[in-house]
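Posting here for the record, re: S-adenosylmethionine.
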Amino acid sequence: MDDLVRPDRYPRSSRYDPAWLLDLDMGPNPLWLLEDLARDLDLRPGMRILDLGSGKGATSVFLAREYGAQVVAADWWIAPEEAQAVFDEAGVGDRVTAVRAEAHALPFEDEGFDAVVSVDAFEYFGTADGYLPYLLRFLRPDGQLGVATPALTREVRELGAIPPHIKAVVGWEAIAWHTAEWWRFQWEITELVEVTSARLQDDTWQDWLLWARAGAEHRPGSGEANQAVVDMLTTDAGKHLSFALVTARKT
Ligand SMILES: C[S@@+](CC[C@H](N)C(=O)[O-])C[C@H]1O[C@@H](n2cnc3c(N)ncnc32)[C@H](O)[C@@H]1O
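Prediction output follows.
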């Protein structure tokens, strides 16, 4: 657990109990991703932020506590009652609202958000050509969009196949894991946003590996699934796997 507290790299995330976060775990450490992503955003107190694909809610707690935001936590698989209990217990229930929402049928008013943030979720719904224009409807002019999503260092199309060690764990889903440059082009070509940053996170695979190993220790029952991720990451050693951190402003 001590290895998960890393104030040099993630000062804000290091203020959170790793055991609390592991109990909400659905993939790589979402606070490390969000803290890094937020370096390319300008998040301020009172902003209304949509956390899209918020899962069990750790990132929404972080957005409320660290940036003083009013957060709508929208997710499809996790019951809003479960997420709301997390927010209430974390003392941010008055600033974070959990909503069951499918990303293509969002129940929000036009231009209602100052920012939309999505951590390790956009790959499930956000790669279609029409998705960015749809999502921007809910963002006010000059509003910000920030996405952290699994990425490859080269496009699958360019590689000719999904690398076998990745295919063994996630199958065809890896075709949604694009390069940072893919995201930049995909968004910029619409002329609906100005892309302010599109980069691969440094040494993501090591962060992810550290986290997956901690998850295996914290939840011994999850052994096989966690071991598969550990094997994928150790075989890859950063050759193909990363996370893309992409930010933009609505023009
Ligand atoms: C890997 S989890 C990550 C959750 C959370 N952001 C985190 O990092 O802990 C992916 C999340 O995306 C959400 N998701 C997937 N497809 C979705 C869709 N079509 N609409 C809304 N949410 C979706 C799931 O409900 C799930 O909670």
